[in-house]
Amino acid sequence: MAGDRAIGIHDLSFATTEFVLPHTALADHNGTEIGKYHVGIGQRSMSVPAADEDIVTMGAAAAAPIIARHGSDRIRTVVFATESSIDQAKSAGVYVHSLLGLPSATRVVELKQACYGATAALQFAVGLVLRAPAQQVLVVASDISRYDLDSPGEATQGAAAVAMLVGSDPALVRVEDPSGLFTADVMDFWRPNYREAALVDGEGSVTAYLQAVEGSWKDYTEQGGRPLDEFTAFCYHQPFTKMARKAHHHLLNTRGHDTDEDRISRAVGPTTAYNTVIGNSYTASTYLGLASLLDQADDLTGRLIGFLSYGSGSFAEFFAGAVVPGYREHLRTPAHHEAVNRRRPLDYAAFRRLHTRSFPADGGDHPTPTQTTGPFRLAALRDHKRIYERCQGHL
Ligand code: HMG
């Protein structure tokens, strides 16, 4: 609850990419024992964008079913969260607004704080709805994670977008006060403007994440939050799914709770199904965890979910959400399964070609090859402008 009013996630939909790279292909390429990927980091495959897909096409594909179901009459704000931004000035949300044909009387903005951005967007949306309860906010979290080839981070790439409609009397999850907050100035993961791929201190990033779990939970408790035992499940940011297990183990341990594996599996296991095959989708990852939980778990009506959103650099927020009665009637489980299952597998050489592809910066006309079978595509970079289109068959 935000104050006395129930505000939260009314609808949730995700989209991912045209292609997928199985970790078996990566392991064959670099000679890694596959157990390190499947068990050690908990990843089976990663989504790979086609040459004509980006954060805008994924974001629009995630949000389109929400607009189709609810219309856009009540949407007055679009908040686009990303850390793989395509422009230093223009919000990617404006392209999504255009592709979806949303009304001109809409506020559109882009937010950034590494993987935390989507939670910032969600919390800002809750605040806007509190001020104007008849309005709804469309939150779009879309990212492509990129590390250098042949680096330890390579196995933790991925891409996806989650769209959420935030409003009063939500059909899925009520967002509660208070939040626990934790900021620390650390260089665990960052991407200078001149780089396509992120820089990372792998081990340091895991430590920074765990410190942020501890710090945000401490503040949550001090702000009058609920005891740990009241939560049924925990949606952690999942750069790789094993990280959710490490985080929950750390939280239980620092609060003096039993850390047996079954308890950890019950709390985080159902949140990992999509992330384990999609990979790190940065801002979208925590909410892919929520989609997985709602789509996979037994009836969660009235149950409390803990959300731990971490963004390197770093900031973390812990908050609670309560699952609303009747939520199952509003889920998009078949479409989510289709988004994952429709991806076409790549071999490692094809993945590498896509990874190293970039647009020339000469301002010329650079059409993209038609690869995606999704509803939207990046057709060209022309005169330094990104040209998007709705695909044939999705008109
Ligand atoms: P690495 O050096 O490739 O792997 O780095 P490792 O040697 O640490 O091994 C990983 C695990 O596999 C270990 O388990 C091994 O024991 C195990 P752990 O000790 O951690 O429990 N292992 C095996 N298990 C079974 N069978 C085997 C086997 N071999 C080894 N045969 C690392 C791994 C994640 C650091 C690397 O991939 C990396 O740098 N990734 C990118 C950074 C990252 O994801 N950091 C996570 C925290 S920061 C974060 O979440 C924010 C982020 O999303 C960005 C943002 O906020 O914007 C990244």
From TrEMBL:
(3S)-3-hydroxy-3-methylglutaryl-CoA binds at residues 147, 246, 280. Keywords: Transferase. InterPro entries: HMG_CoA_synt_C_dom (IPR013746), HMG_CoA_synth_N (IPR013528), HMG_CoA_synthase_prok (IPR011554), Thiolase-like (IPR016039). GO terms for molecular function: acyltransferase activity, transferring groups other than amino-acyl groups; hydroxymethylglutaryl-CoA synthase activity. Pfam families: HMG_CoA_synt_C, HMG_CoA_synt_N. GO terms for biological process: acetyl-CoA metabolic process. Gene3D superfamilies: 3.40.47.10. SUPFAM superfamilies: Thiolase-like (SSF53901). Belongs to the thiolase-like superfamily. HMG-CoA synthase family. This is 3-hydroxy-3-methylglutaryl-CoA synthase. It comes from Streptomyces viridochromogenes.
